[in-house]
Amino acid sequence: MENLWPNDLLANVLSSSPNAIETILELQALGLGPITGGLVVGRVRDRSFRPNRAWSLYIEPVDQPSKSHEFLIIRSVDGKYPVVVEAYHLGESRLKRCDSKASLTKALQKIFAEPSSRSLIRVLADEAIAAGSVAHPHGETQVPSARPIELSPLFDTPDGQVASISMFGISGHISDTTLENLRDRNRHAVEPLSDRYVVSIPFVGTVKATVSKEELAILVSQAKQSLSGR
Fold it and tell me: How far apart are CA 113 and CA 171, in angstroms?
């Protein structure tokens, strides 16, 4: 798990794509699974507000999307270079300006080589193991049976039509638009990630989660780190 950015990871895009900002990040996300033995996975989320562009890389223990961590974000004025990379966990050195694909690649290599980056990914891998995920050759995993997923029929609220949802120990409300996106496997809700799928669900109002004593301790600890800027 020490080499989180293999030298040949971008071999297929460096010569064929002129900028490939999002592609570079997506390849890193896809590469995390094999590198961590299938224990940590990554996904890229487009957080753009036109004309400005932004892409976030989220990482999480396998099959535990509720523990997703925003590892870094890349911002661009118009989707081209220069870009600014911000890795929140790196403190004072979290911002890096990149004027080209080569400098962006070097910046990402440096970020993933940082001890704090390796430590964070190792913590997520340990959480996957603690939850019952078992690493196997070729990045395959065995996990416990999924927790129940339940959706209610739509009902009217002051916020519009919503449905109750309960999944992975989290409960809340989602809009009719989100239900339609899920039904249609719209890319705003369902994104392929290797042989899995990343489901993005915006909640309406307060979201409640049922967590264990150990999960609460992790949540409180990470809240303290976030508030302190680490």
Answer: 37
